Write a sequence for this structure.
C-alpha cells in the first residue's frame, strides 16, 4: 500500500509498505477514506514535536472496515468508522483509575507519531479504538470528530456553562471547533485571530449561527480585556494575553501544544484576581462517543477546505502554512489515499 512516512530529516516520503493484516484477535484493519492534517503533524515536520523516524504519520482518520480478527464482535467489513487515535493500555496504575489519557504506557502507542498512522491506504488498530459512524454522517464531518473530542475535553475542564462568555484564542481549525462547541453549549463566543484571511474564513463558518453569539476579533481590538468567563488558548503560547482576556475569577485553559513556549506570569495577579489556570491535555477516550454524538449537531464539514492525494503532501502542508504575508486559504486540509476510488 501507499504510505507517507517520516524521514530522519523530518520530511515526508511516499513509500510502498506491506498492507496490514489483523495480527491480534481483536485487530481491525480500516481502509482509510481520508485523514485530516493536524497542527501536531506540522509541528513534527518543523521540529517542535517529537516523533519516531520511519513511522507512518496521520491520526485524524475515517474509513471503511476492511478486515477483522476472529475475536472482533462490534465491527464487520464494510462498516464506516471513525478512528480514535488516543490509545491507552488499560492496565497501568493511571488507566486502572480511569485516567486513560494519562496512560503510562504511551511510548510506542502514539498513532502517527511512534505507531503507524493513517496517511496511508490502510491502518490497523485494536477494536476498542474503532467507532461506527452515525448513519447519514459524511466523511468530512466525521474526520473532524477527533479535534472535537479535544475541544470537548478542554471545554469540560474549563467548566463552560450556558450564558457565559468564552474567549477562544486562535482561529485555526482547533479554535473554530472550540467556538462551534462553545456556541452549542449556549455560550457567547469571542474568537480571536490576527490574520485577516483567517478571520474571514472564521466568519464564513459561523454565518449559519446568525444569532450574533459568535463574533470574530483581532487581538488588538479594544474591549476584549477581562471578558472571558472561560478563555481557551488554542495556540499554546499565548498565556499572557489569555490572562488579560479572562474576567476576574475566570478560567484559562492552555490547550495548544507548543513545546517551546514559555510565559511570564505574576503569581500575585493569579491569586488577587482569582484566576484558574487549567491544563487538560487531549481527551479521555470515554469522551469519544460523546464527541461522535455532538458531531451530529455541528456543521464540522465546513472546516474542510482542501483535499489532496497522498502524492501531493508537500502542497497539502503548504496550504496549511502559507509563506509570511501570503493569504491563509485553508482551515482543515485532508489527505485522501485513493482520490478516484474513495470508499463510499
Ligand atoms: Zn490531531
Ligand atoms: Zn495505561
Amino acid at each position: 500500500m501507499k504510505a507517507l512516512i517520516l524521514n530522519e530529516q523530518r520530511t515526508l516520503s511516499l513509500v510502498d509498505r506491506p498492507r496490514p493484516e489483523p495480527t491480534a484477535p481483536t485487530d481491525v484493519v480500516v481502509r482509510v477514506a481520508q485523514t485530516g492534517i493536524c497542527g501536531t503533524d506540522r509541528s513534527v515536520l518543523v521540529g517542535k514535536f517529537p516523533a519516531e523516524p520511519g513511522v507512518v504519520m496521520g491520526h485524524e482518520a475515517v474509513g471503511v472496515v476492511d478486515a477483522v480478527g476472529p475475536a472482533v464482535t462490534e465491527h464487520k467489513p464494510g462498516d464506516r468508522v471513525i478512528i480514535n487515535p488516543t490509545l491507552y493500555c488499560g492496565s497501568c496504575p493511571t488507566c486502572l483509575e480511569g485516567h486513560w489519557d494519562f496512560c503510562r504506557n504511551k511510548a510506542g502507542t502514539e498513532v502517527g507519531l511512534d505507531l503507524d498512522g493513517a496517511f496511508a491506504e490502510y491502518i490497523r488498530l485494536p477494536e476498542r479504538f474503532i467507532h461506527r459512524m452515525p448513519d447519514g454522517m459524511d466523511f468530512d464531518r466525521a474526520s473532524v470528530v477527533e479535534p472535537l473530542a479535544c475541544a470537548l475535553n478542554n471545554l469540560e475542564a474549563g467548566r463552560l456553562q450556558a450564558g457565559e462568555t468564552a474567549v477562544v484564542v486562535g482561529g485555526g481549525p482547533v479554535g473554530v471547533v472550540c467556538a462551534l462547541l462553545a456556541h452549542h453549549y449556549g455560550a457567547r463566543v469571542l474568537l480571536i485571530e490576527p490574520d485577516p484571511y483567517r478571520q474571514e474564513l472564521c466568519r464564513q463558518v459561523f454565518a449559519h449561527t446568525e444569532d450574533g453569539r459568535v463574533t470574530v476579533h483581532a487581538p488588538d481590538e479594544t474591549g476584549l480585556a477581562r471578558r472571558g468567563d472561560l478563555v481557551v488558548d488554542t495556540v499554546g503560547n499565548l498565556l499572557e494575553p489569555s490572562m488579560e482576556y479572562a474576567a476576574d475569577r475566570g478560567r484559562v485553559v492552555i490547550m495548544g501544544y507548543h513545546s517551546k513556549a514559555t510565559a511570564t506570569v505574576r503569581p500575585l495577579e493569579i491569586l488577587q484576581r482569582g484566576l484558574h489556570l487549567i491544563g487538560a491535555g487531549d481527551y479521555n477516550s470515554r469522551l469519544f462517543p460523546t464527541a461522535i454524538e455532538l458531531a451530529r449537531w455541528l456543521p464540522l464539514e465546513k472546516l474542510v477546505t482542501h483535499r489532496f492525494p497522498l502524492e501531493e503532501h508537500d502542497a497539502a502542508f503548504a496550504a496549511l502554512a502559507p509563506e509570511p504575508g501570503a493569504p491563509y486559504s485553508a482551515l482543515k486540509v485532508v489527505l485522501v489515499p485513493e482520490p478516484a476510488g474513495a470508499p463510499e
Remarks:
- The chain has a mean pLDDT of 95.
